[in-house]
Structures are given as C-alpha cells and as structure tokens.
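Let us begin with a simple case.
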Amino acid sequence: MRTAIIVPGVTDLNKGDQALVWETHRLVQDTNCFDQIYIVSTGDTAQERELLCGQSEAKGYQLVETLLKHPRRGNHNEAEVIHESMGSFVRLAFRAVLDFCSQWFLLLICKSDTLVSFFYSKQTAHSVRQFRSAEVLFVKGGGFIHAYGEKTAPYLMWFFLFYVRLGKALGKKVVFLPNSYGPFQGFTVAKQVKSVFATLDKVYAREALSAQKLGELMGKPIPVSPDLGFYLQMDASATALQLLARYNLDPSTQKLVGITIRPWRFPGLPNPESLYANYLQSVQTLAKHLVDSGYQVVFCNQSIGPNAHEDDRNAIREILKDWNHPAVHWIDENLPCDVLKAVYSHFYAFVGTRFHSVIFSLTSCVPSIAIGYGGNKAKGIMADFNMPEYTIPIEAVSADKLVKMFATLKISHAQIQTQLAEQNELLQLKRAELLVELKTLIG
C-alpha cells in the first residue's frame, strides 16, 4: 500500500492554510499514485485540535497526530496582539529548548521502533510508524520559510523544517510544493535552509522573486509553479448568496468591496506600534472613502487563530470600535475556505492583507489590491499575475496611496477582469504540468 503524508499540518482557522492543505491533498490524489494520503494534525489541546482540524475531518481527510507541539501549549494571551510580554517569551523559550532536545533525539532514533517506543509516548510511537511506512512527504504550499532576524528566528526555522528532517532521516522522498522564500535573516537561518533544502527531492517556488532568492542561496535554479491556493474550487451551492443576504447584502444591486486585515508585529522594525496604527488608520480611511463613494464595505475573517496575532478579528474590532456606518459590514463567521472564496466571488473589488484572500479573489476574477507582509509572496505573486502596481508593503501603506490605487483599479476594472480570466485559464495548464512532473518523480 503506497502512502503519502502532507506536512507540516492543517490549520482550519486560517483559510489560506486550509486551502493549501486541501489543494495539496487533491493534487497528490490526482497523481493516482497513492492508496492512502494523510495530513498532519495540529493543536496542543483537545479544544484547539477541534478548532484547527474539525472542518478538515468533517470533509473526510485522514489525519496523523502531530509530533511537534507549539511551545505555547495552547496558552494564548489575547492581549498580546502586537507585542509578546517578556514573561510569555521566557516561557516559550524554556519550552522550545526542551522541545528541541526531545525532537532532535527523536530524529536520531526514529528508524528504531523499539527505541522510539521506549523513550516516547504510545501516540508518538504510532505517528512515527505512520511516517516510517510512508513513501513520500509533501510539504504543503505556503510562505513560511522566511525570517527577519528576530530573536526567535533560529528556533522557528528549525520548527518549520522539522518534518522535512524527519522524512530524510527515515529515507523518504520529500517534495516541497510551491512556496515563497526569503528573506533569510537571523542566526543559523540561511544555514538551516541551505542544508535542509540540499536534501530535497524536488522544490518549487510559487513566484519568480522567491525562486531568485532561494536560487541565490542554493546556487541553482528553482522552478516556479503557481501557489496551490489558485486552484481552490469554490463552493458551488447557494450558501454564499444566502450568507450575504443574512447581512443585508445583494451583489446584484450593490457594489461590494471586500477587505481583509490582520494583526502584524512588523518583525525587524523598531516602531511596530506606530506602524500598526498607521496601517489600521490607512485602511479605515480607505473604507470611509469607499462608503462616501457609494460602495458597501465588507470586512471578512480570513484567519481567526489560533493565537491573538493570527486572529484577524482583533484588527477588525480595532477599526470598527469607534466607527459604525450602515454601509459597513463585518461577516464575522468561521467559514470553510471554499465557501469563503464563493463569498469573495460576489464582490466588485477586493483589498486584502491576508494574501490568500487576494488569491481567492483574483481567481474569481475580482480586481484586487494586496497589502504585502511576511516575505516575498505578495510582491512576487502580484508581479507574476501582471499586477505589480496593485501591491504595497504593509510598512509603507498610507491612506493616500490606497485611495489612488483604488481609483486606478476602478478605471481599469473591466480590463483587469479580462486579464484575470486569461490568467485563470493558464493556471489550469500550470497545474497539469505540475501533476505530470510529480507523477514522473514518484514513479
């Protein structure tokens, strides 16, 4: 029986990550090479596991229990949106050191079922057996291989690359599906990436800029294939329209502009509080401009956890706490990614910080503006989509720039829609090419 495992894990609260895992599963399934395909679970408590994996399990995906817990152990301080307290950091660092020692030892003995069963729990031993029986590990698409020199960077990179190390320690094929890469700032970060990626059987970048950055580090060309989120198939039922109707929204008579925002700590920059305040103020000013221009503004939850920094609702509450207008709506729901994409498809335009919210919109032929954060993904993908003028870094955002961008987008709206339709046709050809390459590699 041929088995594949998708790592590093499913995160149902983040709809971009959820889409990447689901589309990775569909891609691997479409190779027709495997009898069983597993996804690694996430969550450090039973409640957190249900939140992070429940929608995927309801869809019928089979899970392997995680081997790598987060140092938080499910303890999230909802007040620490932009800054983490010294006490929290010390607790995280202490657990991270213990986890590093434990998991590094696991990597050393993982081939021996006897040793793993002796030193670790029954659940860990069972999960390692499942990895031992797998033929290929597929690293889901995404944008998590980057660091800005923050003090946690060495451990974070080790954490993100753990399952790749495990797969190679067990002698498995490992395929790194389309990701964004860089920057690689911080102690040991570039060294870790270079040493681990040298062992991979195949690696893809999801845009040309990341291919260039990783290629420079590795000293070899990196092939480019589109982000797997582009291939997400939206929910085809009437659920999205019914949901919009509950919020008194009718896309047939109203022009809806969707917005996603998120908390962001501006790693590596000295003034995160003022930058965050400027970001929220800029988006709010744009939203007020849109309302004054006759649009219905719709804030959406693209990610709602598991921690305060990953919960978009914290940023939305900050914008709306002193501003109430009948043309401003907040779809405060925990929607599966395919339903959320269907909601976005009914918008006239979209302004997204969460980049997969932009991807969901672009593939629904909705003209979009991207506020980029966290590596090269927004800048690179918008350039590859021939829309570089519609992206701006989160640290450089201003109300004036956003208003001018939207004015340009409005003028070119029909042209952009035609361009997006053409790009979406090409995307399906790109997926077919990727599928052929994977079949050849797997054999």
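The second case is a distinct protein. As before, the sequence precedes its structure tokens.
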Amino acid sequence: MRPFVHICAMPYLFTSESVAEGHPDKVADQISDGILDALLAHDPYARVACETLVTTGLVVLAGEITSGAQIDYEEVARKVIQDIGYNRSELRFDAQSCGVIVTIHRQSPDIAQGVNSGQGIDLDLGAGDQGMMFGYACRETEEFMPAPIAYAHRILRELAHIRKHEPHLMPYLRPDAKCQVTIEYTDDGKPLRVDTVVLSTQHEEFAEDWRTMHRRIEEDVRTILLPRVLPPEMVDQRMRLFVNPTGRFVLGGPHADTGLTGRKIIVDTYGGRAAHGGGAFSGKDPTKVDRSAAYMARYIAKNLVAAGIAEEVLIQLAYAIGIARPVAIYVNTYGTARVPLSDSEIGQRLLQLFDLRPAAIIEHLQLRAPIYRPTAAYGHFGRVPEALEYMQTTCTVEQTPEGPKEVISHHRRSVQTFPWENLDQVERLREAFAVKETLSN
C-alpha cells in the first residue's frame, strides 16, 4: 500500500522495523517453531499450538498439542537457544542453565471436530479458526517486498552472519538486535533513497568508557555492515544513521525483556505496508489458517505481480472455523492492474484457479513438513526457498508370535523451505489473464 501517494502527489517517508533472532520475542517464536518442526518430523499430522515465554533464566512452554510423536520439549528448547547464541552465563539467559517448564495439553475436541475430515458440519478438513489473512507483493525489491522491511531484514541477517561466522570483524556482538529503516519515496510511490537507519545491537562491555564503545560500533556499522546489504544507488550523504541511540546496549535478550510467541506479527509480514489479520504464525501447524492461508495469499499475490498482472497486489482471505472454503476473497491492485478486469473480477477468477480449502493449501504447498523454524526470524516472506533434508522416524506395531512388537523405522526425507515464495504459477496466471509480457523486477 502507498498510504500517502493516493492522497497527495508529493514525496513521502515510510518506515519498517525488523528484529534479530536474539530478540526475546523471536527467541520465543523460534522455540515454538522448533517444537512444531520436531513433532512434524515424526508425525506430519500433529496438531500443534505451542506458545513460549522467555525471561531471565526461564522458558515456559504452554499450549495444545495432539500427536502420536514423543519428543523431548526441554531438549528442543535448549538447542534452539544454543543455536541463537545464548550460551554463556554472563548473558543471564543461557541454554545450559535456564529452567524449562512444560505445560502442554491436547487440542480441544470441539475444535478438532471442525478440523478433522468427516466430522463436524463441513465433512471436509475445515479451517482451524475463523479469521482473515492477508498476502501482499510489490515490485520494489527483488524479493517482491516493500523496501523498508526488506532492507531491515537484510541488515540484521548480515549482522547475525558476522556474529556467527566472521566474529573478527565485530567481535563484541551479542545476540539481541533490532533495526528500523526509513525509505524516501517519490511522488509516484517509487523508492528513491534510504533516509534513515536505526540499529540497536547488543554488545560486550569491551571498554571502560561507553563513548569509546559507541564510536567503535557506529564506525563498524557504517563501514562494514551497511555496505554489504544496502544498494549503493539508495545511499547518499544525507542518509542518517543512529546506532545504539542510548549510548550502550550491554544488557539484552530475555534477561532485559520478557519474550512471548506471536508479538512480532508486523516484523513477520510486510512491515506495516500491508494489512494484517492479527493472527500470529509461529508454533501453529498448517491446519491453522492464520498461518497456511496467509502463506497461500502471499503465494498468489507474488505470482500475480511476477506475471505482470499488477505491480502491487493485496489479497485478503476470510474463513469460518470448521468450514473448508473461504467465506470471502478481496483483491486490491491499487490501480496498478494491467488487465481489463476490476479487482473484484480478478478475485473471482482466482477462486476458479486456486483451491483455497485448508487441505488443498497444505497439499499444494507441502506444509506437513518440518520447515518452520527458519521462518521464525527475519520474516516469513521475501525469503529464498532451499532444499532441506531431515530424518523422519515412524513407529508401527507388528503382531508377532510373541505378541505385539513396536517397530521403529527411519526415512530420509527431502522438503523445501519457504515454498510459498516459489514463482511456479507465473505462466499459468499469464495464460489465464491473457498477459502477453511479464514485467521485469
């Protein structure tokens, strides 16, 4: 959306933020999705709604899980924390010593009745909840994402890469960080330049004077970090840079701020440039349309833009709990459509082209797989799909002369992360909408 361009023809600023994998809320998201992945690796049909709270020295896991898989919740949580980089006692939250409390129970049978195939009013696999979900795409970046959120994600991903793989460059980095990027747009809504970058990054206390630390970190951000990720044509001498604006950021992570699953839904999506239905993603299996339908809406929007049908698209899907087909679809191309159809007509054609029942979405995008932990930091959208191999463990019971016997088998599986980012519907959409040429991005 270009919220100001449609009102007045003048340049404007728009800002989005991202947070690093060490941010307390993102620690919680990653633990929730780590547990989801651990369950799906053994039971693709697991019903999972896992919430996490992290604070000084403590992790609390709660929620509703129905699955035949048996996993070690504590072990999963500790591994996620270790991977993020909370591995020392001086951080006051570390993988080895934190407490882990688990309070998990089964999914409500009233909800299960509406989701299970063959039960409830709609005998198909119904939506796991009511609600509305949004998908968005535009041509501002190669990711088909708005520039402010795309650049904020890039900065923090690179910061984490330096911390983990090139620590000699910025040896003082700790896991917690957040970044805010403001982009100046032309009067016709095109990204013109980076106006402001605000970066707060946790660090070791490597000098006695905080001013000395601040000067070193700011210089490294300006000369090492930003040149790696910001397009040179978007940076000029007027760009403002604020690094650790309070002067120091030694205490951070769950010790400084309590983290909860699902509190970074704008970071997870489009940085405020597109609407959000309010439902979080992490810790939810794909029968929850909060997650799967939002992925499908993004998939359709991105392919529409890549196919040249419009330069910018917002799609809303709405569901009723227990009912398979969406109750409504809404499409907004913001006047950028290149086909002789109204937005409403585009929406009706999409209903003919895509099966939007939850079971069909899950099957089409192959969502019953352990692909979710990578989504829990640096955004669910605008990411690059990658092949992922995992070991699936199954347990069956065989009847033997000596009685029932459990047989455990292991199978190597290959899946793809971020399948909703694939552009495999472009030609189909071009044909369906009679588009003769694809816009370059």
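The radius of gyration is 23 Å. The first helix runs from residue 24 to 42.
Keep these points in mind for the review questions at the end of the chapter.
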